[in-house]
Every structure is written in C-alpha cells, then in structure tokens.
Design goal:
Rossmann fold; eight-stranded antiparallel beta sheet; Elongation Factor Tu (Ef-tu), domain 3; seven-stranded mixed beta sheet; 285 residues; 2 domains
Length: 285
C-alpha cells in the first residue's frame, strides 16, 4: 500500500489568529491520513521573497512525494493565479507545490533557470504548472481573501488522497520567478547582497552564499573578508558562535550556506539597528 504523502505548510499567517488552524482543519477533514508538518507560519507579513527563501532552505531535507502548501499572498483575490506545480524527483515520486503565482514558489526552478529580476518566465524543463480550477479541489464557497483555506488546502488534500495533478485544472505555460538568492558581483571583487531573514535570535541572514567566496576554504575566509551593513563594518569571522567572545559581533556561514551576522548570545538586529531588506556588502580585505 502506498504511503500517504506528508503535507508541509509555509505561511505568513502567524499563530495569534485562527488562520493556520483553519487550514489544518481542512486538511484534517479532507486528508486525515496525511501528516501535516509546519515549516513556519512566521514569514514576515507580505514578504514573498522571505517565504521563497525559507521554502528553498527546507527542500534538501524533504522526501520525494511531499506536498507543499505555501501562502504569502498579498494579492489574494486579485489577478494572480492559484496554481499547483509538479516537480520531478528521484525516488518515490514527484513533489507538488500549491500556492499563489507571485514568485513564492520560485524554489521549484533551478537557480540557473531563474531570471535576474522578478518576472513571468517560461517553465523550466520537466515542471508542470496547473491552474487550480477544479470544483472538486476547492471549498464549496471560496472566500475572496482566504485562498489558503478554500483553494490550496483542499487541492493539496485531493493530491494526498490520490487525485492526479492533471485533474486540478488546465496547464499554464509560464510561472512567476524571483531572482536566485545569491550575491551580485560588484567592483573590486565585492559581492552585493541583502538581509533576507532575521531569525528569532536576531541573526541577520543574507542572500550571499558561501560558495560565492572565490578560491577560499572555510578557514581561509576568516580574515579574508569583511561585511558592511548600515555603514558599520563586521570584521570578525567565526566558524561557530562559540568562537566569538561573549557579546561580540561576528559573521559566519549559516546552516544553509548563507553568510549571516550574529552577536554571541545577543541580537545583531538590535546591535546594528538593521531591518530585513538592508543592503550588505561583502568586501575582500
């Protein structure tokens, strides 16, 4: 007997209101055999890019056959389309992604296939996108402002029960994609990035990837680069938080391979007065 696929949730709904709970209630009713796993419900409100980044960071650890419901949807009820994406995977089966066509699901496309700026692009090879229009895969009455509950959750449940991807609706030829999360080359060997996420510890995670630091091992990076943010220079590079003196500001490579700024047992966001979206400059010494 084929195992029922797990359903992963990523939203900006938070936990104060009942929105995340209503989505889970639909899944419990329509796909009671599926395990529902929260990636996060604390994406910054309306922050499509942050949601897309968080989704990308979890993908390496998710099994083939998984179903994702991702909802960061400031344009809900407007012109953006509700979509389902099937992405081939080695192993037990393809992964499915359901959410708004606003760039949130950009992680389905390889970095090399993503544009240099957000735009509607042709589908990468092997990716199938469907408009979610089947009445059987929607709530009987669809709210204008809550497609997570009334469209995406019912469609995910239909897939979990064994309905085909094709049954959700007609194919679409294009998909909205965000640029890849990586630093942009600047003058004199610099890399230009931005703060994409502030975690609960106050660490500032940037879009610059460790693999973009040319010709250097992890040990060689220490002392080879500085990070500049809001006119302040972060010189100390460490491998672990414990390598920094207590209360010191330092940068490191986070667990997903991105450059991040932290204060040991403190908050970098408070120390630097930073906000998500702030520009970051990585400069060779």
């Amino acid at each position: 007997m084929t195992a029922t696929p797990p359903i992963f949730l990523l939203t900006d709904f938070g936990l104060r209101d009942s929105y995340a709970g209503q989505v889970k209630a639909v899944l419990a009713h329509r796909a009671p055999d599926s395990t529902v796993i929260d990636i996060s419900h604390e994406v910054s409100p309306f922050a499509i890019d942050e949601g897309a980044w968080l989704l990308e960071t979890v993908l390496p650890f998710v099994p083939p056959g998984a179903i994702f419901v991702a909802v960061v949807d400031p344009g809900v009820g407007g012109e953006r389309l509700p979509i389902a994406i099937r992405v081939p995977a080695t192993g037990a089966g393809a992964r499915s992604f359901l959410g708004p066509d606003n760039g949130l699901l950009s992680a389905v496309a390889p970095r090399c296939a993503r544009p240099s700026e957000t735009r509607v692009a042709a589908l990468p090879d092997g990716i199938d996108v469907r408009l979610i229009e089947s009445k059987e895969a929607r709530h009987a009455v669809v709210s204008d402002t809550f497609h997570g509950r009334d469209i995406f959750a019912p469609a995910a449940a239909a897939l979990a029960r064994g309905d085909s991807h094709e049954s959700l609706g007609r194919p679409l030829p294009e998909l909205t994609l965000l640029p890849p999360f990586e630093g942009r080359p600047g003058a004199d060997g610099c890399l230009l990035g931005a703060v994409i996420h502030v975690d609960r510890y106050g660490n500032l995670v940037t879009t610059v990837r460790a693999e973009q630091l040319p010709g250097a091992s992890r040990e060689q990076w220490q002392g080879a680069y500085t990070l500049e943010l809001r006119g302040q220079v972060v010189e100390l590079a460490v491998r672990t938080f414990n390598d920094a003196p207590m209360g010191s500001l330092a940068w490191h490579i986070d667990s997903s391979g991105f450059l991040a700024i932290a204060v040991r047992e403190g908050s970098a966001v408070e120390r630097l007065g930073a906000v998500r979206g702030d520009a970051v400059l990585v400069r060779p010494r």
